[in-house]
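Budget justification aside, the reviewers requested a transparent look at the raw inputs and outputs of the sequence design task funded under Objective 1. We therefore reproduce one unedited record. The lines immediately below are the structure tokens for a 329-residue chain.
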């Protein structure tokens, strides 16, 4: 009998090893139960989101009052999966949601449902259509970022020539703002012609390469400059330019960083990278939600800045940090 009890106890012990503690079992530095904040990115595969995760986790750790639940779709265009993640977090009754909507209209109902259940929502990176009473919006000024990209590309082609802008996905508020900002500013250069600005390169490097291949077939001999509005598009476009032997000849400006783009900036294949601060984005979003839970006033929009990396400044301290932001492993 004693042996049987010992065996049962060991089975139960082994079964529980590695089981996550519930919120009621974990307490913060003030002795109160930790607040659970769900952080839901557009996707989880690109380095940008891993840096957001790092910043959110850092803020949570420093606060001593928050634990992060990190969930998101693998593919950034999978709006249905992102909606399901939000609804799942509502069912779990998390204490707050931090969301980067991959479709500005598609997530409105889910966010309204969360708020109706008493769960405050902070939006980050990409905006949401009007309606829900969100706590705050933490993001880059993407319109301004698009304008800076236009200025950088205009400088690279000596303010004359033909350029193309590749879009991302319809309904993505952040990239739409970049696109609008770029077209707004490039129109101020009378000797620059936009040959194409209505082509969508999609949410991955493969589709972006295919779309860039098509653009180069149409305009290769006439093309002087190219702008892509996000990391996967930029990586695919860079590969296409290199395969066509046009890297360096067609001046190239990208939005968001990657190892391939940093290398391209150094070897003359890329002429500018518009940078965000994803670590601060995650960090400030958690801080804003925590402040709201404490009853403090939170700004409706919190800017995390926009920067331009060039071949000349890529080793500057701030630019170097943003080119290689820390990642959540």
């Amino acid at each position: 009998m004693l042996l049987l009890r010992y065996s049962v106890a060991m089975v139960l012990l082994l079964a529980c090893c590695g089981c996550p503690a519930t919120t009621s079992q974990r307490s913060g530095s003030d002795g109160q139960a930790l607040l659970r904040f769900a952080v839901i990115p557009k996707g989880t595969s690109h380095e940008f989101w891993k840096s957001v995760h790092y910043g959110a986790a850092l803020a949570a750790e420093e606060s001593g009052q928050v634990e992060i639940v990190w969930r998101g779709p693998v593919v950034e265009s999978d709006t249905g999966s992102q909606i399901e993640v939000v609804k799942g977090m509502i069912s779990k009754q998390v204490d707050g949601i931090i969301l980067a909507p991959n479709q500005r209209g598609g997530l409105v109902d889910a966010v309204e449902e969360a708020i109706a259940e008493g769960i405050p929502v902070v939006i980050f990176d990409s905006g949401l259509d009007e309606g829900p009473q969100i706590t705050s919006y933490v993001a880059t000024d993407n319109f301004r970022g698009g304008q800076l990209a236009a200025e950088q590309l205009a400088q690279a082609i000596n303010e004359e020539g033909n350029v193309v802008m590749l879009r991302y996905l319809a309904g993505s508020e952040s990239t739409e703002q970049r696109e609008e900002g770029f077209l707004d500013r490039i129109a101020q250069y009378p000797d620059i012609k936009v040959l194409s600005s209505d082509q969508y390169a999609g949410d991955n490097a493969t589709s972006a390469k295919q779309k860039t291949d098509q653009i180069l077939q149409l305009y290769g001999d006439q093309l002087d400059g190219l702008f892509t509005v996000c990391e996967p598009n930029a990586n695919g476009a860079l590969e296409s330019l290199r395969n066509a032997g046009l890297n360096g000849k067609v001046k190239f400006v990208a939005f968001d960083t990657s190892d391939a783009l940093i290398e391209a900036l150094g070897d003359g294949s890329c002429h500018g990278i518009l940078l965000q601060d994803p670590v601060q984005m995650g960090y400030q979003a958690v801080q804003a939600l925590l402040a709201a839970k404490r009853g403090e006033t939170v700004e409706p929009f919190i800017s995390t800045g926009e920067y331009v990396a060039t071949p000349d400044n890529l080793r500057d301290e701030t630019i170097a940090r943003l080119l290689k932001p820390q990642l959540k492993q």
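The chain has two domains: 24-140+277-304, 142-275. The longest strand covers residues 192-200. Computational costs for records of this kind are itemized in the attached budget.
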